[in-house]
Amino acid sequence: MARKRTAALAALAGTALLMVAAPAPSAPRAPASSGTAVTVRTDSGLVRGLRTDTHALFRGIPYAGPPKGVHRWAAPRPVRPWKGVRDAVKPGPLCPQVASPYARVSSLEEDCLVVDVTVRAAAERPAPVLVWVHGDGAVGGGGLFDARRLADRGLVVVTVNYRLGVFGGFGYPGLAGSGTFALQDQQAALRWVRRNAAAFGGDPGNVTVAGSSFGAAAISGHLTSPGARGLFHRAVLASGEGMMDMPAGAMGEGVPAYPHYTWRTEREVRATGVEMTSSLGCARRDPERALRCLRALPVKKLLAVPHIMNAFQTFAHGTEVLPELPEKALREGRFPRIPLLTGATRDEHRLFVGMAHDAVGAPFTAGQYERALATAFGDRADEVAAYYPVGDFPSPALAWATVVTDRMWARGAWAQARAFGRHAPTYAYEFADRDAPMYLPFPGDFDFGAYHAGDTPYVFEDADAQRRFTPAQVRLAGTMTDQWARFARTGTPDGPGLPPWPRFDPSRPVPHTLSLAPDRIGPVDYARDHRLAFWHRLDRRTTAPQAEPGEGK
């Protein structure tokens, strides 16, 4: 039974979390290729970046020592200071990862704990700092994100590499820190920012941490982690999964239901580690000997285990890093009273349905829709089918994507906004551009709508998306970037020249959620549009969001 459960969790990661947040599935881009040298002194030594007429860019600066050998699956350690000037013009290495059909990047390099820093050439001092925690948990890196658009708004932007997949989330009996190494890396990067922001013109007393998908989930963990206290002063969570559960089959056929999408107990993570590494020739009765064997294995051999990278895209609670379940802590108000910007996309789940079915030439059928409803909702499936009749949608795939978007993603986003809004200044949004350019190379035709992570290129520069933007989408990207920058500067995303954006107040009949689309930026009744009252009635578990007047019919 335990073996089947571990395999199912591995399948979950492989089908559901793959390639959902990198803005371009290609090698890291160098935003600037020529300019003059500029040198900055960090606490570990001098670094030489590149200054153009518009920006200064520093790439591949180490914030922690190499997690190699005996330091694989250990807490990040300090950087060894260097003599002379370290070149910081070329991209640093990506952390170990496996290429996929939709993310043509790979790496075998463990010495990868680096940051990039982007600054406007004539930026004010001290400037607000924004730290970007990229999404996914098995591919990508900070160097893939071109932050010039944000820097143009007067921010110092730091993008972070951290350990991915099995290297960031591995657990094993007796292994301290099991399931939390990625979180520990991110906190080490935030401590680096606190020590070094001023050297780049940034204000260490005004740091915003922002992330999408897996990165936003990590931030919801940091909000409850003792090790992150005081390391940031505002947070942006885009498509965060920290308060989301998972119906059976929602993330792929055969994937079981689970009460928490992001969180696992330390025991579960360690059991997954034993199961996933059983074929590596390191089985030992003594866990310490087994770990020595595993740490000595070449990266390539670890990556050759099917699904091993995807099996560890969760975070372990009941640990020193996450003493309690973050969802519970957030729901009960145990987090800092800092300004929070939180939201989701209008059609979150279309990406996952499309990439598994219609967009790859395997259309999702009406029969599959009926079976999927039965798997997810059991004897309540007919009620869901009556509320979401397949004939009301252009295709069964879009019917199923809407069901899961509303039931899982929207309900989780709503719960998160309500939990935040009860205790801290909270601003909620929905990215609603249903013509957002699809940057992943799918062979089939599918209406992805405002899909998961489709908003990322509207804030970070992306050449492929930019070429396909309409003038209205260019204006939307400019507004969204202005809003993020305003939030990082002041703690509120509205201001002169920007659309009004009141706080999300859970006590109001319709708490303010700002819809962001090229043809309209304005309030939306998020709960009604995603039929949350129906889902609340259908499933009155204690973790369900509490219904409010106006939550749909």
UniProtKB/TrEMBL annotation:
InterPro entries, alphabetized: AB_hydrolase_fold, CarbesteraseB, TAT_signal, Type-B_Carboxylest/Lipase
Please name the SUPFAM superfamilies in this protein's record: alpha/beta-Hydrolases
UniProt organism field: Streptomyces griseoviridis
The domain of life is Bacteria
Q: Enumerate the UniProt keywords alphabetically.
A: Hydrolase, Signal
Q: What is this protein called?
A: Para-nitrobenzyl esterase
Q: What class of enzyme is it?
A: hydrolase
PROSITE patterns, from UniProt?
TAT (PS51318)
Query: Which Pfam family, an example, fits this chain?
Result: COesterase
Q: What does the record give under GO molecular function? A: hydrolase activity
